[in-house]
UniProtKB/TrEMBL annotation:
<keyword id="KW-0460">Magnesium</keyword>
<feature type="active site">
    <location>
        <position position="45"/>
    </location>
</feature>
<feature type="binding site">
    <location>
        <position position="62"/>
    </location>
    <ligand>
        <name>Mg(2+)</name>
    </ligand>
</feature>
<feature type="binding site">
    <location>
        <position position="24"/>
    </location>
    <ligand>
        <name>Mg(2+)</name>
    </ligand>
</feature>
<dbReference type="GO" id="GO:0005829">
    <property type="term" value="C:cytosol"/>
</dbReference>
<keyword id="KW-0436">Ligase</keyword>
<keyword id="KW-0479">Metal-binding</keyword>
<feature type="binding site">
    <location>
        <begin position="119"/>
        <end position="122"/>
    </location>
    <ligand>
        <name>ATP</name>
    </ligand>
</feature>
<comment type="function">
    <text>Catalyzes a mechanistically unusual reaction, the ATP-dependent insertion of CO2 between the N7 and N8 nitrogen atoms of 7,8-diaminopelargonic acid (DAPA, also called 7,8-diammoniononanoate) to form a ureido ring.</text>
</comment>
<feature type="binding site">
    <location>
        <position position="62"/>
    </location>
    <ligand>
        <name>ATP</name>
    </ligand>
</feature>
<comment type="pathway">
    <text>Cofactor biosynthesis; biotin biosynthesis; biotin from 7,8-diaminononanoate: step 1/2.</text>
</comment>
<dbReference type="GO" id="GO:0005524">
    <property type="term" value="F:ATP binding"/>
</dbReference>
<dbReference type="GO" id="GO:0004141">
    <property type="term" value="F:dethiobiotin synthase activity"/>
</dbReference>
<keyword id="KW-0067">ATP-binding</keyword>
<dbReference type="GO" id="GO:0009102">
    <property type="term" value="P:biotin biosynthetic process"/>
</dbReference>
<feature type="binding site">
    <location>
        <position position="119"/>
    </location>
    <ligand>
        <name>Mg(2+)</name>
    </ligand>
</feature>
<keyword id="KW-0547">Nucleotide-binding</keyword>
Amino acid sequence: MRITDYGQLPSCFITATDTDAGKTHVSCEIVRAWQQQGYSVAAFKPIATGAISHKGQRVSEDALKLAAVTGQTAGEINPYLYDKPASPHIADINQSFALADCLKQFKQLHQQVDRVLVEGVGGWCVPLSDTLMLKDLAIAIGLPVVMVSRIGLGCINHSLLTFHQIQRDCHLWYGWIANIKDPDYADIDSNIGAIEQRMTSGTVKT
């Protein structure tokens, strides 16, 4: 299902076809739509890489953007921040990701508001440590999974591969969002149509 009405989404986990697909942009739009519906909201980006300096503090640029919408602090949104802009499992060898602590923080946040948006890092199979991938975090959190697809050259392949992998890994698939970063791209409609058609008619073989 392609999602166009963000306000009707439940609390969800946002993943993407790849890095720079536009997860944070879409996440901010979803949170704004929830606010317009009258919901109390919060964002949670458990892991971020590529820290920046903001007012003398190390922060995630993505978390800052989310905080500007939700009213939280960047630190409340993003507990695990690594300096190097790389896959989390190599971004900081001196800081390890603790899944149990992350889940505890999520559950506390989930109890305080009507809607929580959890934003992943990179794509569905990005390693978080030597033993964990992003998909393990998403499955442990248990929210409906929404995929952001950057519409452009290569998006059909990336979208379908991610869609089928999510379906193989869990039963949390909810739908996908087409993020049009370049409105002048000539094949927007045909690419979106190709993805929709193949998601609807395709089956997952196990």
